[in-house]
Amino acid sequence: MSRGSLTEQSGSPQWLISGALFAVLFLVAAFLATSRFWLPEEPPVVGVWRASVTYDRGLVENERFEFRLTGSDMTGHASYLGVRRAIENGRLEGDRLSFHTRSRERVGIEQYELRHAYVGVVASDSIRFTMETSGGQAGVREAVQFQATRAE
């Protein structure tokens, strides 16, 4: 056997080790690129919530809340009197969230816009809300308080 072939044979394990190391590094990089384990955890408010809300005059309605977050800006939908409404100016700061929705009220032939301002405090499995409605013929109405729980 010639000296050149001994050198080529003794170099083979180094190429195998280098190739295996490269393959392992590639797999780790691929895992990190596709895995969410190193990303910040999604805030607990994100998702769908439900609440039984008692409005003035004793009207009870099952309401649905859908929250999404981008940074501290909150978007989604909140129902009012069973009708889905877009969340406007939604914010989440610590355990406090706030947003408002709009609806229309008709009194005779007159139509008024109502603004529903929500403030909620998030606990581990619930959100305690206070909702104030303003506008319309009645002006500011009495605040409504209720508790929402995560929908399953």
Q: How does this model look, in words?
A:
By secondary structure, the chain is an alpha+beta fold. It folds into two domains: 1-39; 47-150, Lipocalin, CATH 2.40.128. Helices cover 21% and strands 52% of the residues. The chain has one helix and nine strands. The protein has an eight-stranded antiparallel beta barrel. The protein is elongated, with a radius of gyration of 29 Å. The N and C termini lie far apart (74 Å).
Give keywords.
152 residues; alpha+beta; eight-stranded antiparallel β-barrel; single chain; Lipocalin; 52% strand; 1 helix; 21% helix
Short account of what is shown:
By secondary structure, the chain is an alpha+beta fold.
Profile the largest sheet: 8 strands, antiparallel, barrel
The SS-based structural class is alpha+beta
Could you tell me the mean pLDDT? 84
Query: Largest sheet, order of strands side by side?
Result: 1-2-3-5-6-7-8-9
SSE diagram, text form:
Elements: H1 3-34, E1 47-54, E2 60-70, E3 73-80, E4 83-86, E5 88-93, E6 96-107, E7 110-122, E8 126-135, E9 144-150
Antiparallel strand pairs: 1-2, 1-9, 2-3, 3-4, 3-5, 5-6, 6-7, 7-8, 8-9
